[in-house]
């Protein structure tokens, strides 16, 4: 006789919400919205509010789908990390099949709705962003290479392109620079986090840079990646794609980011030291992206 498999209780709606990684989704939705608002009017008219809302809803649903599929695939390593052990799957509050069906259904619905209600260009980029995050980053890169977050960072950089494409049906230089900004911002952001949770990654066997190459290399890479990020961040202003307000904010906030990155890059960590500079850089990096994209919208709508 085979042993009976214990049945899990039905998952609570809060568990499905947790699968979508709502805190991560906030930044994704915000950058997508700013990309849409920064786009020029087509035929003298801005995007219809209903279509705009639908596009943002699709971006949110797609981000949630990617988060759910990520947790479905990584349930085993999530259980080994203190930071993620209380997620619905490793904590036993949901079965993996439910998470898989939820993620696939949510992702398919978001892409179909975007294509039918907005336009095919934005739907194609949205589909690419989901597939890139799930297949390229989660399945292929994360467990295999310390460069996982470098290449995989492109997944989180798509929302400004999607928002712009939703408003215009096309892609231009400014949203491409916004894509590059998020792409180059991702390694310093995540490596700052990885420095103070590297034990978690080591326990789970995830080859994050601090685990396989050490803190010194990671700190140096944070400093090196900040250089092209800073150039891309300020570039829209001298290129004439934004006004003086974005230029001033980008210079001030990027200078602050760079200063924190230099502190982290040149610091020699002692065994008993608290990781205060690293935590400060990580927290500021989130504020930085909100500030940069917010300045873009103010520049476009208030001071234009």
Automatic annotation (TrEMBL):
<feature type="transmembrane region" description="Helical">
    <location>
        <begin position="24"/>
        <end position="44"/>
    </location>
</feature>
<protein>
    <recommendedName>
        <fullName>Protoheme IX farnesyltransferase</fullName>
        <ecNumber>2.5.1.141</ecNumber>
    </recommendedName>
</protein>
<feature type="transmembrane region" description="Helical">
    <location>
        <begin position="286"/>
        <end position="303"/>
    </location>
</feature>
<dbReference type="InterPro" id="IPR006369">
    <property type="entry name" value="Protohaem_IX_farnesylTrfase"/>
</dbReference>
<comment type="function">
    <text>Converts heme B (protoheme IX) to heme O by substitution of the vinyl group on carbon 2 of heme B porphyrin ring with a hydroxyethyl farnesyl side group.</text>
</comment>
<comment type="pathway">
    <text>Porphyrin-containing compound metabolism; heme O biosynthesis; heme O from protoheme: step 1/1.</text>
</comment>
<keyword id="KW-0472">Membrane</keyword>
<keyword id="KW-1003">Cell membrane</keyword>
<dbReference type="InterPro" id="IPR000537">
    <property type="entry name" value="UbiA_prenyltransferase"/>
</dbReference>
<dbReference type="GO" id="GO:0048034">
    <property type="term" value="P:heme O biosynthetic process"/>
</dbReference>
<keyword id="KW-0812">Transmembrane</keyword>
<feature type="transmembrane region" description="Helical">
    <location>
        <begin position="161"/>
        <end position="184"/>
    </location>
</feature>
<dbReference type="InterPro" id="IPR030470">
    <property type="entry name" value="UbiA_prenylTrfase_CS"/>
</dbReference>
<feature type="transmembrane region" description="Helical">
    <location>
        <begin position="245"/>
        <end position="265"/>
    </location>
</feature>
<keyword id="KW-0350">Heme biosynthesis</keyword>
<dbReference type="GO" id="GO:0005886">
    <property type="term" value="C:plasma membrane"/>
</dbReference>
<dbReference type="InterPro" id="IPR044878">
    <property type="entry name" value="UbiA_sf"/>
</dbReference>
<feature type="transmembrane region" description="Helical">
    <location>
        <begin position="222"/>
        <end position="239"/>
    </location>
</feature>
<feature type="transmembrane region" description="Helical">
    <location>
        <begin position="50"/>
        <end position="73"/>
    </location>
</feature>
<feature type="transmembrane region" description="Helical">
    <location>
        <begin position="99"/>
        <end position="117"/>
    </location>
</feature>
<feature type="transmembrane region" description="Helical">
    <location>
        <begin position="123"/>
        <end position="140"/>
    </location>
</feature>
<dbReference type="Pfam" id="PF01040">
    <property type="entry name" value="UbiA"/>
</dbReference>
<comment type="similarity">
    <text>Belongs to the UbiA prenyltransferase family. Protoheme IX farnesyltransferase subfamily.</text>
</comment>
<dbReference type="GO" id="GO:0008495">
    <property type="term" value="F:protoheme IX farnesyltransferase activity"/>
</dbReference>
<keyword id="KW-1133">Transmembrane helix</keyword>
<keyword id="KW-0808">Transferase</keyword>
């Amino acid at each position: 006789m085979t042993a009976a498999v214990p049945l899990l209780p039905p998952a609570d709606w809060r568990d499905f919400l947790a699968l979508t990684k709502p805190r991560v989704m906030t930044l994704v939705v915000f950058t997508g919205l700013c990309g849409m608002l920064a786009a020029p009017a087509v035929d003298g008219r801005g995007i219809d509010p209903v279509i705009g809302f639908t596009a943002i809803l699709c971006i949110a649903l797609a981000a949630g789908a990617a988060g759910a599929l990520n947790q479905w695939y990584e349930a085993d390593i999530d259980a080994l990390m203190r930071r993620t052990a209380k997620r619905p799957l490793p904590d036993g509050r949901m079965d993996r099949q439910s998470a898989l069906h939820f993620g696939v259904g949510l992702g398919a619905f978001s892409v179909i709705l975007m294509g039918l209600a907005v336009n095919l260009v934005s739907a194609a980029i949205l589909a690419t962003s989901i597939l890139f995050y799930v297949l390229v980053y989660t399945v292929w890169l994360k467990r295999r290479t310390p460069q996982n977050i470098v290449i995989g960072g492109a997944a989180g950089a798509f929302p400004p392109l999607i928002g712009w494409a939703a408003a215009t049906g096309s892609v231009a230089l400014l949203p491409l620079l916004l894509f590059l900004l998020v792409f180059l911002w991702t390694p310093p952001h995540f490596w700052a986090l990885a420095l103070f949770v590297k034990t978690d990654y080591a326990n789970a066997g995830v080859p994050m840079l601090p685990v396989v190459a050490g803190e010194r290399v990671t700190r140096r890479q944070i400093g090196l990646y900040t250089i092209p990020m800073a150039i891309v961040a300020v570039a829209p202003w001298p290129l004439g794609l934004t006004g003086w307000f974005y230029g001033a904010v980008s210079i001030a906030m990027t200078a602050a980011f760079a200063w924190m990155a230099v502190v982290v890059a040149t610091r020699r960590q002692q065994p008993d030291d608290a990781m205060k500079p690293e935590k400060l850089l990580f927290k500021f990096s989130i504020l930085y992206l909100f500030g940069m994209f917010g300045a873009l919208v103010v520049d476009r709508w208030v001071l234009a």
